[in-house]
Structures are given as C-alpha cells and as structure tokens.
Amino acid sequence: MVSLLARSVGLLAKSLAGLSCTQATRCSSLPGALSAFQHTTTRWFSKQQLEEGLPKRPLSSFFRFVSEHRPTLAKQYPEAKLTEISKILALEWKGLSEPARKRYVEAANEELSKYKSEVRKYKENLNPLELQLLNEKKKERLVKRKHIRHRRELTILGKPKGARSAYNIYMSENFQETKGISMTEKMKHLQEDWKRLPQSQKQMYVQLAQDDRIRYENEMKAWEEQMLEIGREDLIRLKAKKRLIKDSKVMHEAKSKEQLHKKVVKKQTKPARGGKKADKRKNKE
Predict the structure, then answer these.
(1) What is the C-alpha separation between 77 and 72, in angstroms, rounded?
(2) What DSSP character marks residue 25?
C-alpha cells in the first residue's frame, strides 16, 4: 500500500513538472499542497497502523460475568432475545454477593494492570506524530462513547421519537414491496418511485407527516414538563425551556396570590378574641 502511495505521489510530481511556464504563477503554492497531501496520507496510514498495534482493553468484572453465563442462559432460553438475556444477567449480577463477585473483580483488576503496562510500553516506541494521532483517536472514541450514552439515556427517559417526513412515511410503507435484493437497490428504486409519484398522491403523505409533527410536538411538550419536574433542564429545548420557566413563574405567582387572598379572607371572617365568652358575660350582667 505504501508503494502504491509513492507511485501516486510520483505521478503527481510528473504531472506538475509538465506544466507550462505560463502557469508559473499558479505553481507558487503547489509545493505546499504536495507536502500537505503527503502529510494527510501519512496521517491516514499511521492511524490504520496505530489501530492494529494498540493493545486491547480487557473486559470489566461485569462483562466477565456476562461472557461466562450468557451461553448457559442462551441454551436454557433459545427463544429469548439478546436484550432479555442481558437484563436477566444484569439482575443476577446486582444480586450477587461480594464473595461471589470477588473472583471476577480480581481477574479484571489483574488484566487491567497488564493492559496499562502494555500501553505504557507501546507508547514509548511511538514518535511525536504517532502520539498525537493516538490522542486524537482517543478523543474521537470518547466523543462517540459520550454520544451513545446520551442516546441511551434519552431512550431510558422515554424521549418521544422524532417526526417523520413525507418521504420517510412513503419509504416505510413501500420498502418491503420494492424491487431489489440489497438495501441500496431498494433505496434507489424508492427514490425514483417517489420522484415519479403524482402530486395528488404525495399530498397524502405530506398530510400524514404534518399529523406526525403535531404528535411529536404534543409528546415533546409533555415529556419536557416531566424533565423540568425531575430537574433535567439540560434535556429541554431552549424555546421550550423559556416557555416552561415562564409558565412555572406565572403559576407560582398565581399560587402566591391565591394563598395571600385566603389568608386575608380567613382573617376577616375570624371572630373577635374571646367573642362568645364575652357575650355570655354581658348577658349574665
């Protein structure tokens, strides 16, 4: 692959050498462009090599437990889905005693210390550029992991599914019947069919999309109110956050006024101090 890269760079250099003198003004920035091209390709190849040579992180104590017991559960419940088996294993792990967990934790810690030692040795053999690439790759993984966790959290919190477009509704209804073996073939045929679809038929899907948008906005409104109640304002859209905060302030002010009005009415209707006893004394006199 490296020889192929060298060949490509050589062909590029030959083509640049064959340029006429009238193009000299344009050629002033070409050496920089060539070096940039070599730099980016070097970075790409280095990234591939770094991924291959980097030591793999060992399993945690929980995943060691899962990998050990999953095959047994899969044999016991062949019709069960992977997610269902994972839930059962998670509950079993949660109820596992400390002595039973100990061997998984100790094995995980031992493998982790070996992994850290291997990574330290691996980094010692890298040059500055490769270290920089390794750090970039680590940042990319962290961002991706954070995104996955965020999506998983939203699913757990029950965030409504987004509104579908007219084309998405048409695609979901006609995907199975569309010609083609692979996914790409089916998608290509669907796009062509959608373009040829008469406007009168498209309007039906447009209306369905508008209805779905209303459904989404109503569900999001209710969901964002719940998020405000549990203190998750960070998950609320900016416009909705302003509206909800304003509504909560108005409700709080109205409630305060209502409480104040009740206190005033109660004070006015309250009988005078010792009223009935004072009247009895006057009657006796």
Answers:
(1) 9
(2) T
| Residue the block writes with tokens 């083609």 | 180
Please, are residues 73 and 89 in contact by the beta-carbon 8 Å criterion?
Answer: yes
CA dihedral 92, 94, 97, 101 (to 10 degrees): 90
Contact 43, 133 (CB under 8 A): yes
Q: For the segment 59-70, what is each residue's pLDDT rounded down to a tens digit? A: 999 999 999 999
Whether residues 144 and 71 fall in one domain: yes
173/242 same-domain check: yes
Q: How many domains does the chain have?
A: 2
Q: Is 158 helix (H, G, I), strand (E, B) or coil?
A: coil
Q: Residue 236 in 3-state DSSP? A: coil
Shared domain check, 135 and 200? no
CA separation for the pair 15, 37 (Å, rounded): 15
Question: Is 80 exceeded by the pLDDT of residue 82?
Answer: yes
What single string gives the DSSP state of each residue in 43-78? HHHHHHHHHHHSPPPPPPHHHHHHHHHHHHHHHH-T
